[in-house]
Amino acid sequence: MQVHPLHLLALPLVFALSGLFAAAVAYDVIIFRRRHRNRNNVIYRCSSCHHIYAEVHRTPLARCPKCGKQNEPVRE
Ligand SMILES: [Zn+2]
Prior knowledge:
Layout: H1 5-37, E1 42-45, E2 52-55, E3 62-63, E4 70-71
Antiparallel strand pairs: 1-2, 3-4
The protein binds zinc ion (ZN).
């Protein structure tokens, strides 16, 4: 049985593209799960120490875990 030289070049290409496709699918799944998990989080930014933190429940003011200052949310 004779193997065409073009097939020897195409086989690694197919493996590489399959690997890239699998990596893209895994990336999408991971990002989707992370966004879904953080969907209800509210982001706060401390006005005195610039620490960024998130709270699960939306409150008008949330205490900074680093310095204790009360801050307003920056994202709905
Ligand atoms: Zn702070």
